[in-house]
Amino acid sequence: MSLKVDFFAGETLNGQRLIEFRLGQEAESEMSVAGAELMVRAEASPRARRLRYTLWAFTVRGNSSVGELAGATVAGGGRNGGRGWQRLDVTDAARRWAANGAHGPLRLLVDCSGCGGRVRLRLGGGAAARPLLRLRVRPRRARSRRALDCDAAASGSCCRQTYYVSFRALGWDSWIVAPEGYYANYCRGACDPLNSYHSQIVEAAALGRSTCCAPVRFSALSLIYFGDDANIIKRDLPEMVVEECDCP
Length: 248
Description:
By secondary structure, the protein is mostly beta strands. The protein folds into 2 domains: 1-140, Jelly Rolls; 145-248, Cystine-knot cytokines (Cystine Knot Cytokines, subunit B), CATH 2.10.90. 9% of the residues lie in helices and 49% in strands. The chain is built from 3 helices and 17 strands. The chain starts with a strand and ends with a strand.
């Protein structure tokens, strides 16, 4: 599963802008990071068609000193001359951050070798071009399991069945930035009319039918994807996740 990580333009260190990320409110106090990817938008000069450069990301202790290497990537040399979104694997740095509780922000310094003033890194500004941190965590099923889930409900009774939709398996990962997939879930099982309210039994009998196991509560899905001109768009899609099932 993926987590929302909020971006903030940080202070400067030796004249270079720092970037920082904080976890959203839905994050658990303890989590296991499966992978993390930093995405930075690079804008190269049109004349730098075959420019080749290296992006480096370093952790920053507080706002004063550079720490460990977080990740690096070589860009350029192709048709676009290294323009567009560049990706750096920062899994180790994110794991260290999570191991310390992730109470404070993850501060990073992004540097460029070989840019020579011909490449501009977008380290702030509008939401469509600011840096992104894709954080994948391993779900802690034991902590999130509730009685409404089928793995904890009585056999055959109405319950919520977890069901994961992978955007990568659907071939949509080329335009969806985050998440990589989500738990859509669905309802299954039978409803016992003897356990329903009296009014529901009377209504069901009058209509010649029994109550059905159905969703009674949904939640939205936050989707981040590439729009026109490679801009990044965030949209909240309502009623995409089945949260609870019952016999209405």
